[in-house]
Prior knowledge:
The chain is an alpha+beta fold.
Amino acid sequence: MNGFREPIGQIAAAVLLASAALSFAGPAAACSCFPENRAAQYARATDVFVAKAGKGPAPFPGSHYTGQEGVAAGGPTSRQVIYALDVDEVLKGSVTKGSATVATSSSEAACGVVFEAGKTYLVFAKREDAEATAPEGAKDLLQTDLCMGSVSGDQLDAAIAEVRRLSERTVTPSQ
């Protein structure tokens, strides 16, 4: 009989420990990206550029963003914020050197990019087209998220060098 109680006690202890460990786990982030290499990120983006972040974020036009992460209401773009970026180098697309405005989710859990003021980024963005499918206020607007592949910090120089090589290999169709 003693041999029967010992395995049950061990199982009960394991279940108790597992449930205790789960109760101390923090909330899981909802952002999940399919792994892509830099060439795939470059191909998917309509615009790729090097820029320094200005102050931000600012509310997306027409939203009721309060400045608190994830707190907004008021329409299809209400959970987005915009950042003003100072573009130093254009590697792909029609963004111009100087100032650019990029929209992203107001929450990192929803794959939003947090552009820290004064920090330099390699930005991968996609331009919303002027079709009726683009939300009001988002026509011809640059959008980005964590899955697009934007880079800063220690990886910045290597990523810029890699994208420069990709942009040199890309042939622009003649007009």
